Amino acid sequence: MSGPGGYAIVDMDEDPAGDITGQPSNDLEFKTYLDSNPAGARTSQPATGTRTAPDVPYSPFDIAYYQSYFDVDTNTVLKRVGMSMIPRDNFISEICEGQIDLYGPFWTLTTLILALYTTSTLTSSITEYLSPTSGEHITSNIPLLSTAASVIYFYGLAVPCGLWAVTRWLGIGDWGVAEVIGIYGYAMAVFVPVSLACLVPVGILRWVLVGLAAGSSGFFLFRNIYPVLLQSDNPMSKIIILAVLGLHAAMAFGMKVLFFSYTVAGYSAGPDPIGSPISL
């Protein structure tokens, strides 16, 4: 309808976006058309398998700091134990996916202690039983358990801690004490099946088995420790790796003499380090 002056009257509909009272809404809404995740942008998702230290701050009296080192399942530990028997480098970065654990090394060392004590005691008992000069008295070397625990725990825990302290003092190698303990602990896994195989009462066979285990585990230590030492130009790196291999050979020799020196029929491949056994 046209009014005076040429103006037209137009009916306007109410704002459909009004509020519940029917009044038009004066609120303005803004919409962005920008991509929430533009190409090439990095998301803040935590990386998996690249962490070598706990997320909590370091504190020797905080249990939460050590918890992540034991947060591992049995299948993972068994896989790492099996792969440690195959000497290869980059064990922590590839097999452990950058996250070393302490449960596996501690479990390996404890299992080795029990295996050494059990097999050595069983072998000596068989020797006493078959010996024509000792009658049928079966003996038990209970002090051998404390000897095994002292030797294995010292070599598997104290020695790597000492190695880490020396390298840190000399400024050689960028690694943590947990990584060194992990390498040493998993390196000892090969001695568990060897200790069971040494039940065979053949002295030369035991020397061969212990020698093969020492060579395999020593090569494992070399391939995982020496590359870390080479990161520095310090001339002490070669001396340290020679000391590591020499101490490992001495440990294997001592293990053979201490725990696998018995044969049947009263003959021994080496002296009894415990002395007089405790009779049952």
UniProtKB/TrEMBL annotation:
Keyword Cytoplasm attached: no
Membrane topology label: Multi-pass membrane protein
Keyword annotations from UniProtKB, A to Z: Membrane, Transmembrane, Transmembrane helix
Compartments (UniProt record): Golgi apparatus membrane; Membrane
Record-annotated membrane-spanning stretches: 152-171, 183-202, 208-226, 238-262
Primary subcellular site in the record, as a coarse category: Golgi
Molecular-function GO term, any one: small GTPase binding
Pfam families for this protein: Yip1 (PF04893)
Cellular component, GO, one term: Golgi membrane
GO biological process: vesicle-mediated transport
InterPro entries cross-referenced by the UniProt entry: Yip1_dom, Yip5/YIPF1/YIPF2
Domain annotation Yip1: ranges: 87-251
Membership in a protein family: Belongs to the YIP1 family.
Protein name: Protein YIP
